[in-house]
Amino acid sequence: MPAWEASLGGEIDFARDIRPILSENCIYCHGPDEEHRKADLRLDLKEAAFARRDGISAFVPGDLAASESWQRIASDDPDEVMPPLKSNKHLTAEQRDLLKQWIESGATWTEHWAFVPPVKQEIPTESPTPPSTIDRFIQVKLAEKGLSPSPEADRRTLIRRITLDLTGLPPTRAEVAAFLNDQAPGAFERVVDRLLSSKHFGERMATFWLDAARYGDTSVMHADGPRDMWPWRDWVVSAYNSNQPYDRFSIEQIAGDLIPGASLSQKIASGFNRNHPSSDEGGAIAEELRVSYVVDRVKTTSNVWLGLSMECGQCHDHKYDPISQRDYYHFYAYFNNTTDPGMQTRSGNQAPFVEVVSNVEEDKLRAIEETIQKAT
Q1: What is the DSSP letter of 134?
Q2: Measured distance CA(158)–CA(176) in Å, rounded
Q3: Per residue in 47-74, pLDDT tens?
Q4: CA distance 232 to 268
Q5: How far apart are alpha carbons 19 and 183 in whole angstroms?
Q6: Among 293, 297, 298, which Cα is nearest to 310's?
Q7: Are 297 and 335 in contact (CB under 8 A)?
Q8: Is 346 in contact with 280 (CB distance < 8 Å)?
Q9: CA distances from 108 to 12, 43, 67, 101, 227 (A)
C-alpha cells in the first residue's frame, strides 16, 4: 500500500511510511553521526526516540500534545519549527499528516525486516478449514477485513497458473489434457509434484537469484566483452533443483573456493563474487577499477545476505541502519584481499579462473570414455 493510501485512512507502516520521512528530514541532525547530532537527540533508535528526558519525549504514542517532535513540526515559530528553515528541508502536507496519524494511532515502531527473527506461527484452526495450510492463514486475514475468497478457478486456469508460477512456461496441450482427464483425488497435487521435479523449476527459481547476484555473460562496461559465467548460472539452477540446504547454498557462493579440499563445484559457486561489471577501458586507472569491484562485492553481499543497504556506509554513517562508516570498511576489508586485477581482459575471463567443460562437451567425453573402456 503506497503512502498516499495510508494518508486516506489505511494502516500506516513505520518502515514504509514514517522511517523515510525521518531519514530524509531529521536523521542528519538526530541520527548516529555524533559530529552532526543536535540536542543529543536520536530519532533513528526506538529507545531514544521514545525516551523521556527532562520531562519531554520526542514521541508519545497516542498523544500529539505531549510529543515534542510534533509540536516542533506543527509550530509557526521560525525559531522552533522542525526541520529548521536553514536546513532547506520541508515537510509536505502529506508527510505531516502521516506523522500526525502515526502518533495518534499509537506510534508503532517496527524494526527493519532483516533484523526480525522468524517465529513459527500456529496454524489457524478456524472453520471452515481450507485444504491448504497457507490458505488457512489467508482466510483468517480475509475474515478480519470482512472479505470472502474468490471461487476456485476452473482446471484449465489452475494448471496454467501453477505451471507459469513454478516453471515460467505455459503448460503444453498434452499436460492440460492429462490434468483435465485425471479425476482421481490429488490430481492437482500430482501436477505440483511433477513441476517441482522438472528441470525448469530450477531455471525459474534461479532467475530471481541471478538478478540479485548481478549475473551477466558480458563485462557490462566499455567494450562489453564476453566472459563465461554460465557455469555459475548452471550451478545455481542445479542447487535449486537438488534442493540444496540454504546454509550450503550461501557458504559455497560466498567462499566456496576457501573450503578445505574445495571441489570444482564449490569453486564454481564462488563465482558469485565475480559477477560484477568490469572494464578494460584505455586510460582507466587499474586501482580505481579494482576498488570499484570490491565496493560492488560489499554492496551485493550485504544486499543479498544481510538485507541491508550497506553501501550507504561508504561515504557516511548509515542514516537509520546500525552501520557506521567504520563498519563498512571492516566489511570491505574482507573483499580487499584478492588477486583480482583492476584492468580486465577484453576477451574471455580474467584470471584466476577454473577450466569447465560444457554439458555437451561432458557428454562427448563420457561417450569417448565408454568407447575406450569397451575397446580395452
Answers
A1: H
A2: 10
A3: 999 999 889 999 999 999 999 999 999 9
A4: 6
A5: 52
A6: 298
A7: yes
A8: yes
A9: 9, 14, 14, 11, 49
